[in-house]
UniProtKB/TrEMBL annotation:
Gene3D superfamilies: 3.30.470.10, D-amino Acid Aminotransferase, subunit A, domain 2. The keyword Hydrolase does not apply. Keywords: Pyridoxal phosphate. It holds the Pfam family Aminotran_4. It comes from Malaciobacter halophilus. PROSITE patterns: AA_TRANSFER_CLASS_4 (PS00770). Its cofactor is pyridoxal 5'-phosphate. GO terms for biological process: amino acid biosynthetic process; carboxylic acid biosynthetic process. This is D-amino-acid transaminase.
Length: 286
């Protein structure tokens, strides 16, 4: 696989970074993950805006110009992805190279940029049959709104879930369900759709925001209000949203079956609306 690293396009096994890169030493960097359908990026401007915001929040002095587009086009070309669909475009920017110190380098550093494009098809089984998830304490830092490359708590939660026979974990902060390890979570209860507000406790998912738009445009009742764990038993449906998940149903949470472990009607309607949007915007021949 050809990747991009600090201005060069190289085979991934020949790509190197400096050991003093602050991303490597201190996880001092941010990233973005894009979905590519039929060669085109989904909600590119929204991702770009969030990426710039993440950079600003970490005080990494770097203004994005058109490098996101250029790097993607080159990686797409160099890896001959023309006939591949459902790609994942990853890019991260770190504060750059300096001898290890918590304080930012006094001299302005050149940021470290790494990017790749890989095939990542939708998990059809999960999409059609739903996931089984557990809940776990949300022990992450309080700035989950920043797409920071430091993801240890998310990795631990995901692995613990897998080790215990679940597919993923939902984080719980002060009794409130925030989000999953790499996606946002929605619940349907008494014909209202609930999801946590876009606060510092969650990443404001591009897919989340798109699904909210779909709900509003199609007459679904939606509330950006979080669900508490004690209400889980009363939930009619649940689903995750994320760049590589679209709308993926949840059919079991801990030992609680949701909708008798069948994908619910609201979830199916949203999946259909999502697919229609993709069809019209990415696949339709003009
Ligand atoms: N994850 N919440 C968290 C903690 C995430 O890591 C992600 C995305 C989301 C969903 O955001 P979006 O809809 O913009 O993909 C929510 C990416 C895909 C990842 O880390 O690979």
């Amino acid at each position: 696989m050809i990747v991009f690293v600090n201005g060069k396009y190289l085979n991934d096994n020949e790509a190197n970074i400096n050991v003093n890169d602050r991303g490597y030493l201190l996880a001092d960097g941010v990233y973005e993950g894009f979905r590519v359908y039929n060669g085109k990026i989904f909600k590119f401007q929204e991702h770009k805006q969030r990426f710039q915001r993440s950079l600003n929040e970490l005080k990494i002095q770097y203004t994005l110009k058109d490098e996101l587009e250029t790097i993607f086009e080159n990686l797409f070309e160099k890896n001959s992805y023309k006939n591949s669909d459902e790609l994942f475009y990853y890019i991260q920017i770190t504060r750059g190279v300096a001898l290890r110190d918590h304080a930012f380098p006094k001299e302005k550093t050149k940021v470290g940029i790494y990017a790749f494009v890989a095939k990542k098809p939708l998990n059809e089984k999960a999409y059609n049959e739903g996931l089984k998830v557990c809940t776990t304490p949300d022990n992450r830092w309080a700035r989950c709104d920043i797409k920071c490359i430091s993801l240890t708590a998310n990795c631990l939660a995901k692995q613990n879930a897998l080790d215990n026979g679940f597919d993923d974990a939902l984080f719980v902060h002060d009794g409130v369900i925030t989000e999953a390890t790499a996606s946002n979570v929605f619940f349907v209860k008494d014909n209202t759709i609930y999801t946590h507000g876009a606060t510092n406790r969650i990443l404001s998912g591009i897919t989340r925001n798109f699904v909210i738009d779909l709900c509003n445009e199609n007459g679904f009742k939606l509330s950006e209000f979080p669900l508490t764990v004690d209400k889980l038993k009363t939930v009619d449906e649940a689903f995750l949203t994320g760049t590589t998940l679209e709308v993926t149903p949840i059919v079991k949470i801990n030992n609680i079956s949701i909708n008798e472990q069948k994908v619910g009607e609201t979830t199916k309607k949203l999946q259909k609306l999502f697919k229609e949007y993709l069809q019209n915007n990415f696949y339709k021949k003009s």
